[in-house]
Amino acid sequence: MKIATYNVNGINARLPVLLQWLEQAKPAVVCLQELKAPQEKFPLEAIREAGYEAIWHGQKSWNGVAILTPHIPAEETRRGLAGDPDDSQSRYIEARVNGILIRCLYLPNGNPAPGPKFDYKLRWFERLKTHAAQLIKQNIPAVLAGDFNVIPTELDVYKPERWLEDALFRPETRQAYQQLLAQGWTDSLRKFHPQQPIYTFWDYFRNAYGRNAGLRIDHLLVSPALAGRLSEAAVDHQVRGWEKSSDHAPTWIRLADG
């Protein structure tokens, strides 16, 4: 079972790239972030023509998350992260697929830091950790997939000294990510590539992709109930080089049959 996450950076603007990648990669589950489209502007017909169904939580101009599955829509279990009833940002959607709880998230960027946006990022992270801990306690097979906007370690960024004050790399952000892992979650990419610089995002400026000056901020974390089934994890980095592509590349794992 192939499960992928992909920040599309505008689903309608990047639709040809997304459809081309779906045709080539054929994932069983796709978590999308940064749809940048209101609910009614999601391109469902084009997604269906590609052989997928979707559930999505849209938002005009910003944010937005979706889960795609072949042929049959996923069984939605939650829309929006619990813990703040006044939070109107579309950053979280959750569904059950083949007995696995898929949690698609787009964690806040948090810049400039310090400041209100960084405070919101850390509060959102606390809400995520609270919900994630419940899944661990209940031993639920689950995947946390998405754009976490977290650079976990110096190995995950080109020239880390340039990112020390950025919200993605500040100590508070990295500590929150490590606390999440300490609950029992497995960082899939690092399990298979423990010492290799491996990136999922390259800025559009300064030929970042050509120089491989990237960041690893898109993550797939698996719960202990699934860790033994992990058989592969990789980044389809070549997609970042396609014309009119997102500044992220699809990142994916493969689970052996349970």
TrEMBL record:
Keywords noted in UniProt: Hydrolase, Magnesium, Metal-binding
Single GO MF annotation: double-stranded DNA 3'-5' DNA exonuclease activity
Keyword Methyltransferase among UniProt keywords: no
Keyword DNA-binding found: no
PROSITE patterns the UniProt entry points to: AP_NUCLEASE_F1_3 (PS00728), AP_NUCLEASE_F1_4 (PS51435)
Enzyme class of the recorded protein, top EC level: hydrolase
Cofactors required: Mg(2+); Mn(2+)
Highest taxon in the source lineage: Bacteria
E.C. number(s) listed in UniProt: 3.1.11.2
InterPro entries the record matches: AP_endonuc_1, AP_endonuclease_F1_CS, Endo/exonu/phosph_ase_sf, Endo/exonuclease/phosphatase, ExoIII-like
Limits of the Endonuclease/exonuclease/phosphatase domain: 4-248
Family of this protein: Belongs to the DNA repair enzymes AP/ExoA family.
PANTHER family linked to this entry: EXODEOXYRIBONUCLEASE III
Name of the protein in question: Exodeoxyribonuclease III
Organism: Rhodocytophaga aerolata
